[in-house]
Write a structure and sequence with these properties.
Blueprint (H helix, E strand, L loop, with lengths): L1 H35 L2 E6 L5 E6 L5 H9 L1 H31 L11 H6 L8 H25 L4 H13 L2 H26 L4 E5 L12 H6 L10 E3 L15 E4 L12
Antiparallel strand pairs: 1-2, 3-4, 3-5
Length: 267
């Protein structure tokens, strides 16, 4: 069953990059806004020489920032659509895996990504709420950086470098939300399949050591917890904590009662 978890990991990584690339394309729109509101000015240096550079006059700051705010909704839509696409791919891969490998698995009427997205998490927020909040923070960071740069009289080339630096510093947030929602969807579906198929015992495995401090992660503790005396990491399908241990969690689930049904080509 680790095989399907590895498929989910690949799906997540591919969609993470797509989301990052799509949002990065908005930088071109930001640059256009900056260039459209810039003008050339002559600067006299200390040695008396004169250079020409493009800057944005402070009087145009409000106009620039208003245009930037319009990108907030577009950013939110890009992130939401990309995340939902990753969730859909993960659910399809999970359903296909279990349906093709095991005889008694019930996959009819399984979850849809849109249903998961609409369901509030423990904090009461839906996926759209969380992404809207992230898009607002992302836009706010660009907003603040550009405002400071213009007020300091930075050149267009300097501002563009600073904008690109701000984006690079936020890529990890885009990747985290895609990974989180993709793996949560996969684990949630495994739990639903277990319930519909009359299965009780699920083992959580912490995996894919992409983080140097993974021993501090909640999933590491769960994977070594023996709650029912059945062995480390063994829980019942009703133990909801195993489906969303922590943000960006890549732990995977094993349906223990399916062992005898596994075909010869399945690990």
């Amino acid at each position: 069953m680790r095989e399907i978890a590895e498929q989910i990991d690949k799906i997540s990584i591919d969609h993470e990059q797509q989301v990052v690339d799509n949002v990065a394309s908005l930088i071109a729109a930001v640059i256009k806004i900056l260039n459209d509101n810039s003008s050339s000015e002559n600067i006299t240096l200390a040695d008396g020489s004169i250079i020409k550079r493009n800057t944005i006059n402070r009087s145009k700051l409000r106009r620039v920032l208003v245009e930037l705010r319009k990108l907030e909704k577009e950013t939110s839509k890009m992130v939401f659509d990309g995340t939902l696409s990753s969730m859909e791919a993960a659910l399809l891969a999970t359903t296909t895996f279990y349906k093709s490998r095991f005889k008694s698995i019930v996959t009819k009427g399984t979850l849809k990504a849109s249903e998961i997205a609409k369901k509030p998490s423990e904090d009461g927020l839906t996926l759209q709420d969380r992404i809207d909040s992230q898009a607002m923070r992302y836009t706010d960071d660009l907003y603040k950086q550009i405002r400071v740069s213009i007020n300091k009289g930075h050149s267009i080339s300097e501002i563009i470098d600073e904008v690109e630096g701000t984006f690079k510093g936020k890529e990890w947030e885009l990747r985290r939300i895609v990974t989180t929602e993709t793996f949560n969807s996969y684990r949630t579906l495994v739990g639903e399949i277990a319930d519909k198929s009359g299965l009780t015992w699920i083992r959580l495995h912490e995996s894919f050591p992409r983080h140097p401090r993974r021993r501090k992660h909640t999933c590491f503790a769960y994977a070594h917890e023996d709650k029912y005396g059945k062995g480390q990491g063994v829980f019942k399908s009703i133990d909801m904590k195993i489906y969303s241990p922590h943000p960006q969690c890549t732990s995977w689930l094993e349906l223990l009662e399916l062992g005898e049904e596994v075909s010869d080509n399945v690990d």
